[in-house]
Amino acid sequence: MAFKSDFMWGAASAAAQVEGAYNEDGKGLSIWDVLYDGHTRHNDSPHVACDHYHRLEEDVENMKKIGLKYYRFSVSWPRIIPNGKGSVNQKGLDFYRRLVDLLLKAGIEPMITLYHWDLPYELYKKGGWQNDESPEWFAQYVKVVVEALSDKVKYWMTINEPNCFIGISYLGATHAPFLNDKDALYPCTRNVLFAHARAVKVIRETAKTAPIVGFAPTGPIFKPENDSEEAIRIAYEKTFSNSIKGPFSTGWWIDPAVLGKNPADLEDYFGKPLFTSEELQEIQQPLDFLGFNIYIAAGHKEGNSAYETNEYIGCPRNSLNWPIDPDCMYWAIRFLNERYGLPVLITENGMCNNDFVMLDGKVHDPQRIDYIHRHLLAARKAVDEGYKLIGYIYWSIMDNYEWAEGYDPRFGLIYVDYRTQKRTLKDSAYWYKEVIASNGANL
Length: 443
Hints:
Elements: E1 8-12, H1 15-18, H2 31-35, H3 56-66, E2 70-74, H4 77-80, H5 90-105, E3 109-115, H6 121-124, H7 134-149, E4 155-160, H8 162-171, H9 185-206, E5 212-216, H10 229-240, H11 250-259, H12 266-270, H13 277-283, E6 289-293, H14 327-340, E7 344-348, H15 366-384, E8 389-395, E9 414-417, E10 422-425, H16 427-438
Parallel strand pairs: 1-2, 1-8, 2-3, 3-4, 4-5, 5-6, 6-7, 7-8
Antiparallel strand pairs: 9-10
Helix pairs in contact: 7-9, 8-9, 14-15
């Protein structure tokens, strides 16, 4: 059975992970451009990445070959406003205008994410997301982008994975700005959610084409231990609890934005309320869809077990050692529908693999094909049961800079030889093309 005729098939990228040209044509520095040194595998930087900035035509042509209907990409804040606030870099806007035009000419709908982790370094020096002025900085940047591109772009996502760029950046010290400061979580949580809300209002007030607006968080999705109603209830409660995963939690970020509620347990966590009722009214802006990034089922240690609850001895894993369990897709769609009542768009799902060009000049990646296939079957099960799913955006369109892990993990449908920047479509790209062409009927 195929998905609905208007199902959104796509792939994604992020500016800092693919563009390169980190100091060209007036672009300012991001925190990743500066702070990677001493923190990333092999000391890899995003300075060149996939050189997408200089290879737009080739990259869009490859998207067309795959048959993508949608391309989700992020705009680089420091490429648009080099110092984070103040003067605008017209060459930066011209770059994204050119990308949008190429996509539309190829029959691909652009989907813009306004923030995917590349905070301008000049704003970081002013406190970044800890500074209570940051929501206004973000709103000013969003207004510039929307005014420049909304005549041709209608799909907008405000912020990608605050769980990660706050949780593992300010608490885990593994992503830029590589801090371990629990005290930063309170102002950062507040300011990021205020920034999201301000962005939604700016989009709706400024867009020249009727906008379709969403949010792209992630978070742990716990699987039930069995099919009983009690087990399902427990898994649901774990999924939206904030006591297991802290700032990485699903409800921490989505409950205020969608439900207008203070996340459970956070007053105890912080020792004071997170938002007043008036502030929650400001944060709860109407959304057209809820984006969600899902790769693995959530797990935690119980007792003295050597494995987390989402693992078992010899379980399948990707090249980052993440356990693979496609059922997480079904439970994500179901639980998000049940709690938030918004149509869900899977904004990221994918597998990093040990890919390389083989003797025949091709990249054979059957594990990735199997991974996508199983996750799409789980998605279709949720749809068949009546849960709202509007699309699937594979992460990522091409191999790219995987943040602190550098260039070793390869998630792409397109292989990138970083020495030469040669692109090679993988077997999974051709397989995904057939899925898109059949609207999933061939799964």
